[in-house]
Design brief:
six-stranded antiparallel β-barrel, single chain, globular, alpha+beta
């Protein structure tokens, strides 16, 4: 496991919820999910009634979580990209999720579980510590630099996933 993967898993363990993203009928969507990490893979619990698990199953998805609303001086975001599959968790894994919501959008909650085998992991950290003037300047520069670097990494990753031309 790479140092980025270890760091991402450590950060992910600090929060309980994130967002899974993929596409359904060529339209992108993002859905909330509860997560745990088991055996180096991300295990998600979602509401079956929304049907998002059908689009995710067997597809490449991105799962992201962050501490943006924490008020911390060090903000982080992690993203795991990989193939998702519907699974039946062990009793220990089910217990690790904690209590289920009673309702989702007015419907009784019915769980469905998915495991993501990460193939690509990113970690972004923004540091707002230091004097206020430095924080303002550094924050803007980091956001610009971070967004550009993230865009370049994502473009390289997407190119790697595209089918390669074959010689006939």
């Amino acid at each position: 496991m790479s140092s980025d993967e270890i760091r991402a898993i450590e950060l992910l363990s600090r929060v309980s919820y994130g967002r899974v993203a993929t596409s359904m009928r060529a339209m992108p969507f993002v859905a909330p999910a509860r997560h745990i990490v088991a055996d180096g893979r991300v295990l998600l619990r979602m509401h079956r009634g929304l049907g998002y698990h059908r689009a995710c199953n067997g597809s490449v998805v991105a799962y992201g979580a962050d501490n943006f609303d924490s008020g911390a001086e060090r903000i982080w975001s992690v993203q795991f990209t990989g193939t998702a599959e519907i699974v039946e968790p062990t009793a220990e894994e089910t217990a690790a999720f904690g209590p289920e919501p009673v309702r989702v959008d007015g419907e009784p909650f019915t769980p469905v579980f998915m495991r993501i085998e990460p193939q690509f992991v990113t970690v972004h950290e923004l540091d707002y510590s230091g004097p206020p003037e430095r924080r303002r300047r550094a924050g803007v520069a980091e956001l610009r630099h971070g967004a550009l670097a993230a865009h370049r990494r994502q473009a390289r990753h997407q190119e790697a996933l595209l089918p390669q031309p074959r010689d006939h």
